[in-house]
Specification:
Blueprint lengths: L4 H14 L3 H26 L5 H16 L13 H19 L3 H10 E3 L5 E3 L1 H24 L5 H14 L1 H10 L3 E3 L7 H11 L10 E3 L13 H12 L10 E2 L4 H11 L6 H4 L8 E2 L7 E7 L2 H17 L7 E5 L2 H13 L4 E2 L3 E3 L4 H17 L3 H12 L8 H14 L3 H7 L3 H15 L5 H9 L12 H6 L1 H6 L1 H20 L8 H13 L5 E3 L10 E5 H4 L4 E6 L33 H12 L2 E10 L21 E3 L17 H5 L3 H11 L7 H8 L6 H9 L8 H23 L5 H13 L5 H22 L8 E5 L5 E3 L2 E3 L2 E8 L4 E8 L12 H22 L8 E9 L11 E3 L4 H19 L13 H13 L3
Parallel strand pairs: 3-4, 5-6, 7-14, 7-15, 8-12, 8-13, 9-12, 13-14, 20-21
Antiparallel strand pairs: 1-2, 10-11, 16-19, 17-18, 19-20, 21-22
Helix pairs in contact: 1-6, 2-3, 2-6, 3-4, 4-5, 7-9, 11-26, 13-14, 15-16, 15-19, 15-24, 18-19, 29-30, 31-32, 31-33, 32-33, 35-36
Length: about 950
């Protein structure tokens, strides 16, 4: 199972752009490891104690020892030893700490460079990085060899091969040096390692006497496509390589007005990593050479993002009406996400827009539907009816079928009640459902032998063949009515189908494709996260349209009027968050793409500012679309750019735009009829911890998905990891029961066989079965070696409380507890809940995913205490202890971990409020919208809080 495929792909791309071979990368990593081995014990002694003023002197004392450490020079272009970077930083933080009389610089360095290991000692973070990068470098070597064996190369390979050929073949290098005697490099700040290597080879000749004919042009303030450190590093290394160079600072600007240039400079000079801060002789203050009669730079504050976008669209519409050319106006945003929020407002005002972007056709509605249909046909044809059954609800919910929600509800409830597949019941109906079921079964049979093109036509409803049933999708997506009312959507869908067929024709051209090949083709793209992108063409006449684009796209362009939207701190400033790199790099290998540091975001905003010739308008709002408070980007708090406040517009003038997932087709029916239907179904409902967690988990589930999965019982194929967990639980349950009935522990080999039997019942795909069989066998072996002796005959296993009438404040609770130890004398109970997955050592959680998981787990233990203590059988008992027991051992130590909860009455009281709120929503079949909440841990907590307070 490939768990970091995308990360490795990105890392290989970074390696290639760096110009380094696998051997060179490994040499650098080995060199780094030798330094870590030497430096780590010295630093461990210092940081074993609390950081104090004494620490400053201790670091100062070890710096000479680090400098005295002998190591081989890397001898790699533009790269230095890790020791040099580390020593330089240590000297810098000592100087800062002494000057500021503060240990904060020491703490910052420690947090950046060190972390604690399992023995509570500080170690270099580069230890883990190095281990992963070593592995990635070998994959990199395998990749290069595989590409060569198959006579394949990409753009990066072309540059990489030239760079290495110049160093290996002297004749080639000398001939090219003779041919290219004058070299000009534009956008020098964005040059990567491989390109720099070529430049170095072309200019490295004794005949030049250190003065080759080379001119490089670059602006470090506009480095938005560079690699980390390249924006200044390239220029400084160039200066070091050619000490006799002549530096010319271009200060005359023929685009923007003086006011716009002044505001732009006030922003960019807040950056730290700038050439002006490294070379004193450079002054990049720009002088305006175009005399704009009227020019302005303003900052506008709105109450809400709705106000901001509405006002912007209305203002631009007014300007166009008064004679300004649409093409002279540009609206710039940080990301496509911001633009997508903005577009409906412009559409509402009837403004023609030029917005170039790539659309992944695999996300286009007709393509998604074809994929869905093809997968279901392939599943039916392969005999995997249970998985096909789980996919049917989403397919049948598509509006093209025109099946009412009530019909699907009844079908779902009957299938659950009778424990039968949907297709079976559909075949017994005397209506459209029967026709659809027969068509699916027939298509599943025919798709195994008829050409893919024929199958795709039939699936769309575009076949000329006579048939008793025709799929409705051609009419739905490509009717004359659609063409007249939504021509953009019609053409977009048509382009998507054309491109898909083109790509399929290129895929295995030597064989006749069938539906199963189409499914394989799609699965390959999904697993590798590979889009099939189509360029959009939103406006045939760009001169009559307003330009809407990202700041990246705007580089190199200019406009009379520029509007920069959503200039908030979460989008552009210190609170902005980018995607983290799974595989990061040591400090002496700066090859990760730039874009996420404060300086890099500042440069991107500077690029946006300097696109304006005459007029610059920056806007932001105090609340985003989710009604969350926002603040102005930190770098826009400047003296000469005070915000102008605009009053909020009436609510009726704002546009309400929302997109609905497929579930909305099911649930977006008349609320009264839905509630009436649910009334009898929920009459004897009992709330379980799983139901509670699914209702409040707005990241992976939420109220709507909860109602479909847990109340309406829509079939859903179990995820392989869930099937694995179920098999583990059943195996341990059988081991406990064996001990209880025979007073003997079941032999380990029998327990492992039980697991294989239980896992086989999960009907996994062969590859998943083999993987989880091995994983489960190893896990159970380690667990039993550690914990088997803790099993006792009197433990109560898999106690089910569905018939225990556990009621608190009219809330009926149910659930099953893995292991209970009951002390009848003291009337106390201890609870163990088994968990598969990576063990957690504490309740805080290291990232958002783990915080959500642990939040669910803790609420489960709170639930169990209330359920047990309010049940008939254990009334008067007290649950004193409860803990999670992780079946899988910790990777490094092979230890089995427990995570216990300390019950707190205040926390229990708050939890009861949550139970009451969720109980009421479920009983009333009320599915509150969660669109305004962030899909993360904080969003879940806010949703829970609003539920308890009755705000939703």
């Amino acid at each position: 199972e490939y768990t970091q495929l995308r990360s490795v792909q990105n890392t290989i791309s970074h390696f290639k752009k760096s110009g380094l071979t696998p051997d060179e990368i490994q040499r650098l990593l080995k060199n780094n490891t030798l330094f870590l081995d030497f430096a780590e014990p010295l630093l461990q002694k210092i940081f074993a104690n609390r950081i104090s003023k004494k620490t400053i002197a201790e670091i100062e004392q070890i710096v000479p020892k680090l400098k005295a450490h002998k190591e081989e020079a890397l001898d790699l272009p533009n790269l230095i030893n890790l020791s040099s970077v580390c020593i330089e930083q240590l000297e810098r933080i000592v100087e800062r700490a002494q000057n500021e009389n503060n240990t904060k610089p020491i703490t910052e360095w420690k947090n950046a460079w060190l972390e604690k290991n399992s023995t509570n000692d500080f170690v270099f973070k580069d230890r883990k990085r190095t281990k992963k990068l070593f592995a990635a470098s070998f994959i990199y070597g395998d990749y290069l060899r595989a590409m060569q064996e198959n006579a394949l190369y990409d753009y990066d390979d072309m540059i990489l091969r030239v760079a290495h050929a110049l160093e290996v073949f002297d004749d080639l290098r000398f001939n090219l040096q003779e041919q290219y005697q004058y070299i000009l490099v534009d956008e020098f700040q964005d040059t990567n390692g491989a390109q720099m290597r070529i430049l170095s080879d072309l200019t490295n000749n004794e005949l030049y006497g250190g003065k080759p004919n080379i001119l490089v042009v670059g602006d470090d303030d506009q480095a938005i496509y560079s690699f980390q450190g390249a924006e200044v590093g390239n220029i400084i290394s160039f200066k070091d390589q050619f000490p006799a160079l002549k530096t010319i600072t271009l200060t005359e600007n023929y685009r923007s007005s003086a006011e716009i240039l002044s505001r732009s400079r006030e922003v960019i000079t807040q950056g730290d990593n700038r050439l002006e801060n490294y070379i004193e002789s450079i002054d990049k203050t720009l002088v305006a050479k175009n005399d704009h009669v009227r020019s302005s730079a303003t900052l506008v504050e709105y109450e809400t993002q709705n106000d901001e976008f509405y006002s912007l669209a209305h203002e631009i519409k007014t300007r166009i009406k008064n004679g300004q050319k649409p093409s002279s106006i540009a609206v710039l945003a940080r990301s496509h996400k911001d633009i997508q929020l903005l577009l409906p407002y412009f559409k509402h005002e009837g403004i023609a827009m030029h917005y170039e972007h790539k659309d992944n056709i695999l996300q286009q509605p007709p393509i998604l539907l074809l994929i869905e249909l093809a997968k279901i046909l392939h599943l039916i044809a392969s005999g995997r009816t249970d998985i096909a059954n789980a996919a049917l609800p989403e397919l049948l919910a598509h509006p093209a079928w025109e099946i009412s929600p009530e019909t699907l509800w009844k079908l779902s409830l009957r299938a659950h009640r009778e424990k039968r597949f949907w297709l079976e019941i559909m075949l017994e109906e005397d209506n459209k459902l029967k026709n659809i079921a027969e068509w699916l079964i027939t298509m599943a049979r025919d798709s195994q032998h008829q050409p893919l093109d024929v199958s795709l036509d039939i699936l769309l409803g575009n076949s000329t063949k006579e048939a008793s049933f025709t799929a409705p999708f051609m009419h739905y997506f490509f009717s004359e009515q659609t063409l007249n009312k939504q021509p953009d959507a019609y053409l977009s869908h048509l382009r998507a189908l054309q491109l898909l067929r083109q790509k399929l024709a290129e895929y295995m051209p030597e064989k006749t494709l069938h539906v199963k090949d189409f499914v394989e083709f799609i699965t390959m793209h999904e697993k590798a996260n590979l889009p099939i992108n189509a360029e959009t063409d939103p406006s045939n006449d760009r001169l009559c349209a307003v330009n809407i684009m990202t700041a990246h796209k705007a580089k190199g362009q200019e406009f009379e009027s520029v509007f920069i939207v959503n200039a908030t701190d979460t989008t552009w400033g210190t609170k902005s968050r980018g995607r983290s790199q799974r595989l990061s790099y040591p400090a002496n290998l700066p090859i990760a793409p730039a874009g996420e540091s404060a300086d890099e975001r500042l440069r991107l905003f500077f690029v946006a500012l300097t696109r304006a010739k005459r007029e610059l308008v920056i806007s932001y709002s105090l609340k985003n679309v989710a009604e969350k408070q926002t603040i102005l980007a930190n770098f826009l708090h400047i003296e000469n750019l005070k915000p102008q406040t605009v009053e909020a517009k009436p609510l009726k003038t704002q546009i309400k735009a929302a997109t609905y997932a497929w579930q909305d087709s099911i649930l977006n029916s008349d609320n009264l009829s839905f509630k009436e239907l649910m009334k009898s179904h929920l009459a004897h409902y009992q709330l379980s911890p799983t139901h509670l967690n699914n209702f409040i988990d707005i990241v992976d589930c939420g109220p709507q998905a909860f109602f479909m999965q847990n109340i309406l019982k829509f079939p859903q194929a179990a995820h392989p990891s869930a099937a694995f967990g179920s098999a583990i639980h059943k195996t341990l349950q059988k081991a406990h029961h064996h001990l209880s009935s025979t007073k003997q522990r079941r032999p380990t080999e029998d327990v492992l066989h039980d697991f294989e039997v239980f896992l086989s019942e999960q009907r996994l795909e062969p590859s998943n079965f083999e993987y989880y069989l091995q994983k489960g066998s190893d896990t159970l072996q380690a667990y039993l070696n550690n914990r088997y002796e803790s099993f006792t005959p009197d433990q109560k296993v898999e106690s089910n409380f569905s018939g225990q009438n556990a009621v608190i404040n009219s809330i009926h609770l149910t659930g099953a507890i893995d292991v209970m130890s009951v002390n009848n004398k003291d009337k106390t109970i201890s609870i163990i809940d088994y968990k598969t997955g990576k063990p957690a050592l504490g309740w805080k959680g290291r990232d958002d995913y783990e915080k959500i998981k642990l939040h669910r787990y803790k609420q489960q233990l709170l639930f169990y205490k209330l359920m047990v203590e309010h049940s008939q059988q254990y009334s008067g008992y007290v649950v004193r202890n409860a803990a999670l027991e992780f079946v899988e051992p910790e990777k490094d130590t092979e230890q089995i971990h427990q995570l216990a909860i300390e019950y707190d009455q205040k926390e229990l009281d708050e939890f009861i409020k949550l139970l009451a709120a969720v109980w009421q929503k479920i009983k009333e079949a009320d599915m509150p919208s969660v669109a305004k909440y962030d899909k993360n841990y904080k969003g879940i907590l806010q949703f829970e809080d609003d539920l308890k307070k009755g705000l939703i």
